[in-house]
Design brief:
The chain contains 23 helices and no strands. It is mainly alpha-helical. The longest helix has 28 residues. It is elongated.
């Protein structure tokens, strides 16, 4: 069966009258083209000047232009200063540095928008003389960056300095104190500018004394009153400074400990009080003021006993033993360490049990009794290993090796002395076997005489490096 095939007619041609003149046909085609073009134009979105600018310009340039046109000239100028500051800082640091590799504000739409949101609100509030709202917006923004990811700490720091430089008419002491506290907290914890941070914290402490001011909402984290929080941060910063200065300027470190103790007392942190006293006592030991050291550490011990703080008592006992040893009271020193061991075992405090064995081992090493010292040091080594305190384990391993070496020292000396004459060859062979095959050349323990002056000083300095927990 055959089917006839036909081409469907063109719709355009169906509308054309073939008797129409060619000119008329061309005019109809042009009209239809214009209608189609207009239809397509009508379907296109209508872009505002702002949208066109953002499409054609880098985002930060478009944003600054919009802010200026909208009357937010202060916001635009401040953001521009921040962009210029980061660029200048990056160029100074150079390619490949940590500063260079930080994310750039100029390329961060999210952070530019956040800055714009808060700064424009602050500028509107300022123009309306609503200074409390302006301060709140600025400080919220500053805290967001100062205590957020470290890549943006620099931005938080600039905003915080802006906050503390703002001057308001009337009584804004509360706002000033909170701003001083937050910038002090930032500089001490994140900014690595402890001295400047302590100055701000001192101002906040003085201004907030007797006040119930709080900055939980700004930091978005539960906080005590500004006065107590300032005292706590001052204590921590002062104690860090004191422990660094102990080795080079123990007199200054002792004075700082005394100030830190006062800040701990104001913050009602009683454990911190006797920790400061213990470190002060250790400074006095280094200054050879051992009588003062014993008196100071006794104060710390009594406070820890009154509060039934076992770990505080243990720390005080360790420091007291070291002070007694330096004062020439060896028996009292050993008694302190025995009490420490008993107390730690009674309360199942493995760390302090290990410390007791360790310091008793060092005591016997100072008393020229390595045979007593070595097993105690090894007990300390095993306990530190069990509790995964690897740093102290390795320190004790060193002293255990020294002690074990001192046990063998007399036998080694005697063997060396026998290396002259006919028996020299045989004794040299004993030494070679000791070195190569670890074959013992000693047969019994023996007493010996050896100068411990330098060793005693090393033990004392080593013990002073221990931080109070």
């Amino acid at each position: 069966m055959s089917h006839s095939m036909s081409i469907p007619p063109d719709p355009e041609e169906q509308l054309i009258d073939f008797n129409m003149s060619p000119i008329k046909k061309e005019q109809m085609k042009r009209h239809k083209k214009r209608v189609l073009q207009q239809k397509l134009r009508d379907e296109l979105p209508v872009l505002t000047l702002q949208e066109i600018r953002r499409f054609r310009l880098p985002y930060h340039e478009a944003l600054l232009a919009e802010l200026t046109e909208s009357g937010y000239t202060s916001t635009a100028e401040f953001i521009k200063q921040l962009l210029d500051l980061q660029e200048k800082t990056r160029k100074k640091a150079g390619p490949g540095t940590h500063i260079w590799l930080r994310p750039q504000l100029i390329n961060s739409k999210q952070n530019l928008d956040l800055l714009t949101q808060y700064l424009t609100k602050a500028e509107r509030a300022h123009n309306a003389e609503d200074f409390a709202t302006e301060w709140e917006q600025m400080l919220h923004l500053a805290a967001h960056y100062a205590f957020g990811p470290d890549d943006w700490w620099w931005l938080g720091e600039q905003l915080l300095y802006q906050c503390v430089s703002m001057e308001y008419p009337g009584d804004f002491q509360k706002q000033e104190a909170i701003a001083y506290f937050i910038i002090g907290k930032y500089l001490v914890e994140n900014g690595k500018k402890a001295e400047a941070g302590k100055n701000y914290l001192d101002l906040a402490r003085e201004m907030s004394q007797g006040k119930s001011w709080n900055c939980t909402k700004i930091l978005n984290k539960k906080q005590d009153i500004v006065f107590i929080e300032s005292c706590r941060l001052l204590y921590k910063s002062l104690m860090e400074e004191a422990q660094i200065l102990m080795k080079t300027d123990p007199a200054r470190a002792s004075e700082i400990c005394n100030i830190a103790r006062k800040r701990a007392s104001e913050a009602c942190e009683h454990k911190w009080e006797y920790t400061a006293l213990i470190i002060r006592g250790r400074c006095e030991v280094l200054l050879k003021r051992t009588s003062d050291a014993i008196a100071t550490i006794t104060k710390a011990l009594n406070r820890a006993v009154r509060r039934k703080d076992v770990s505080g008592i243990c720390d005080a006992k360790i420091s007291m033993a070291l002070a007694y040893l330096q004062h020439g009271k060896a028996f009292e020193s050993l008694e302190c360490l025995k009490e420490l061991k008993q107390l730690a075992e009674d309360h199942d405090l493995q760390f302090y049990t290990a410390q007791a064995y360790r310091y008793m081992g060092e005591y016997y090493l100072n008393q020229e009794q390595p045979y007593e010292a070595t097993p105690l040091l090894m007990l300390a080594f095993y306990i530190f290993n069990d509790i995964k305190d690897l740093e102290r384990r390795e320190k004790v391993r060193t002293w255990a090796a020294i002690s074990a070496g001192e046990e063998l020292f007399p036998a080694f000396i005697r063997l060396i002395k026998k290396c002259d004459g006919d028996e020299g060859h045989e004794n040299i062979m004993k030494l070679i076997k000791w070195i190569d095959e670890k074959e013992f050349f000693w047969t019994q323990q023996s007493k010996f005489s050896f100068s411990y002056t330098s060793l005693q000083q090393s033990v004392l300095e080593f013990s002073m490096d221990e931080e109070v927990l």
